[in-house]
Amino acid sequence: MQPFKQNGVKNNNNINEVECKNEYNDYNYERDRLKIFLKFSIKPVDINTCKEEVLVLNKKEHYMSGLMKKELVENYLEYIEVETDRFLISQDKFNFSNQPSNYLDHPPTSLAEIDRNLIIVRKYLDILDFRNNSKQQLQLQQNQELYEIQQHNTVIYKQLIETVKQRVHKLINRFIVEALYILYFELSKLSDIYQIDVFLRKPTELINISDKPYIYYSTDLKMDQFLKRSNRILTILQKQLSLTSSSLNNIGSGNTSKDPFQNIQDKLISNVELQSIQDLINDIEYLNKLMYYDTVFFTMDHSKIDKDEPVIGVIGLIVNRLHRLENELKTIKQHWTPSAINRLHSFK
């Protein structure tokens, strides 16, 4: 197996081809899923190391099929729920054993404990209510350069939200970095083979990768700069995808020859999954928006968010978990109070 060559760039002569082959053969997708190994440098991205080659050869299909996005979402949803429940138990001795999973058929062991759990959940919902930060107060704080969100000084924010958000964002960043690399490889390959006028020569010029906890943007960049860079990447990739699709259509309709070289081209074209590329771009946009919402959750105007908006940030998911618990507790209380039971028996 020879290392890939991309856009006429020579492969690194220092690569030990035997070691590279062994690394490829020893690759284990399950073991690698949560390990960040791909690092961008200030130089253009070239497939000139074993790790980058392994990424393209072994992980591309998992990204292009949507499997990586699906697994990522499933992992962080479970992680957020588990950590939220763990916080309630450790901080307030929340009693989950008093809430049977089939609570409509089986009564709780104690209605008093249901009331206590309800008080705990509502306490944290009140603390995390974004309406606590009034618009006038935020404007005043911004003007005085003393901008501070009330919730940032609370126990639930410092002990739960900060930790969970940092962990989830790091997993998302890993996904974005690798997905951008795969997109770069795929679109550059199409541009090279079919001489498509697509500029994706140096994707690292548009992003700033650091060794900070949030590896997708450096801590010295403001959020608006980060979003502009992210949107610029997506816009360029989407335009290139459109150009690629248009050029491929022109090739298919404008050349009817069936020489061997054309047969090879036809085969390659049929294997290009343009929709998968578009889906991967959408995945990046979705996850990038998720991280953005986490930065503005307590200051944004939630009334302007579309009710059908599918993106929910980490903070929003924690709040949603608390709301689900509140609804369960209210249902249990209403269903199993003596008056409710008496009304039920009176209809029998």
Describe the overall structure.
By secondary structure, the chain is mainly alpha-helical. It has one domain. It is built from twelve helices and no strands. Helix 1 runs parallel beside helix 3 and helix 8 runs antiparallel to helix 10. The N terminus is likely disordered.
In brief:
The protein has helices at residues 17-25, 29-32, 50-64, 67-92, 111-127, 135-143, 155-194, 223-254, 260-270, 274-296, 314-336, 338-346.
Radius of gyration: 26 Å
**Describe the biggest sheet?**
none
Could you tell me how far the N terminus lies from the C terminus, measured between alpha carbons in angstroms?
76 Å
Beta-strand residue percentage: under 5%
The pLDDT mean sits at 70
- Coarse shape: elongated
Structural class: mainly alpha
- Number of β-strand runs: 0
Please provide the ordered H/E string of secondary-structure elements: HHHHHHHHHHHH
The helix content is 55-70%
Keywords for this entry:
single chain, 348 residues, mainly alpha, 0% strand, disordered N terminus
Set out the fold topology.
Layout: H1 17-25, H2 29-32, H3 50-64, H4 67-92, H5 111-127, H6 135-143, H7 155-194, H8 223-254, H9 260-270, H10 274-296, H11 314-336, H12 338-346
